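Exam review. A common question shows you a sequence with its structure tokens and asks you to describe the fold in words. Practice with the pair below. Do the first one on your own.
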Amino acid sequence: MWVREYTEADWTQVWPIMREIVRAGETFTYDPALTEDQAHDIWVMGPPAVTVVAVAGDRVVGTANAYANRPGPGAHVSTASFMVAADARGMGVGTALCQFVLDWAKAQGFVGMQFNAVAESNCRAVELYKRLGFEIVGTVPGAFHHPTRGRVGLHVMYCEF
């Protein structure tokens, strides 16, 4: 498996991953009724941002994007989002994607990376981010409505470079 920059030809494999994750409603704050066109507009980012895919053989097994967390005076801190195909979870895809965007952000001159909304129920992601140097700097109680657990907190996580 390797991580590379996204090309438009990847969309046919990225969209099903996004569709499944967004419709499940367990980790992202996106509207579960998100259309394919809306998803593309949200996910695929050009420079100065980056969108990448994790590829195993000829199959896209995950995707990420990274960009400045805020404009202007906040533009020195990056952010990123990650999605991994259900049948590829637990195989290091998320770790590879996260490490790639961390390296990208450092090379772009960002001073850190902030995740604005990590569902506290997404334990695998929280543990991965902690392992890669992130810490929880705050939690908004009940800010995410999980489809089976009800209202859970959203963590704000940060990694200083």
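Now try the second one, then compare your answer with the model answer below.
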Amino acid sequence: MTDAPSGTAAAPAWAIRAATPADVDAIMRLETSTFTSDAWSRAMMQADVSNPHCHYLVAEDPGHPDAPLLGYAGLLSPRGSNDADIQTIAVAPDARGHGLGRTLMQALVAEAVQRHARRVFLEVRADNPGAQHLYETLGFLPVGVRRGYYQPDNVDAIVMRLELPARKVIS
């Protein structure tokens, strides 16, 4: 899957593909630089990327596949479950503002639909209005707060939910 920023006819700005366990080191470099105080551990990320109930994506520069990742995102969505959860998403600072975060989120929501989920949940830091705005423009609505969820910073998490359209079964 490739994509380019909206409104441009230039070559794709990124290439998106399914993550594999071999990507965990690159994912962790972006994870620890993005989420300095509350990054996931390598073991947690390895477990999620390897989990068949999860769907992880990585975004790369199509002209430089050995360059650092431009972004990654992960979804937990067991097939047959009504609920899916956006586990994590990160976009490298120099790749922000070009639609990559939106593209990753849309791909995860599409995967949740394919897995027959009815709702997608996520948590977002209360002190991250940019991410909150992105999620709201994608149709996520705030449904609750988890006080002090992000540690050690003691920052609240806003829980957001997206209701997915029911899939029609053709008989």
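Model answer, second protein: The mean pLDDT is 91. The radius of gyration is 16 Å. Full marks require stating both points clearly.
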